[in-house]
Amino acid sequence: MNVVVVESPAKAKTINKYLGSDFTVLASYGHVRDLPSKDGSVDPNQDFAMVWEADPRAQKRINEIAAAVKGSKKLILATDPDREGEAISWHVLELLKNKRVLKDVEVVRVVFNAITKNAVLEAMKNPRPIDQELVDAYLARRALDYLVGFTLSPVLWRKLPGARSAGRVQSVALRIVCVRELEIEKFVPQEYWTVEADCRTPREEAFKTRLVELDGVKLKKFDLNDAAKAGAAAEAVRAGKFKISTVDAKPVRRNPPPPFTTSTLQQEAARKLGFSASRTMQVAQKLYEGVSIDGETVGLITYMRTDGVQMDESAYAAIRRVAEARFGAKYLPDGPRRYSSKAKNAQEAHEAIRPTDPGRVPDRMNLDRDMQALYDLVWKRAMASQMSAAEMERTTIEIASTRVGLRAVGTVITFDGFLALYQEGQDDLEDDAEGGGRLPKMTAGEDIGVKLVKDEQHFTEPPPRFSEASLVKKLEELGIGRPSTYASILSVLRDRGYVTLEKNRFIPGDNGRLLTAFLENFFKKYVEYDFTADLEEKLDEVSAGKLNWKTLLTDFWKDFFAAANDAGEKRTTEILEALNEALGPHLFPAREDGGDPRTCPVCADGRLSLKRGKFGAFIGCSNYPECKMTRALGNAAANENALPSEGQLLGQDPVTNLDVRLKSGRFGPYVQLGEDATPKRSSIPKGWKVEDIDFEKALKLLTLPREIGAHPEDGVMILANIGRYGPYVQHNKTYANLPQVDEVFDIGINRAVSLIAEKLAGGGRGRGRNAATALKELGAHPESGKALKVLNGRYGPYVSDGAIHATLPKDTDPLSVDLDMAVSLIAAKEAKGPSVKKGRAPARTAKPKTAPAAKAPKAAAKAAPRAKAEKPAKKAAPKKAAPKKSAAASKPKAKKAS
Question: Which domains does the chain have, with CATH numbers?
Answer without folding.
Answer: 2-130 (3.40.50.140), 140-187+465-575 (1.10.460.10), 191-255+391-459 (2.70.20.10), 262-388 (1.10.290.10), 591-702 (no CATH), 707-832 (no CATH)
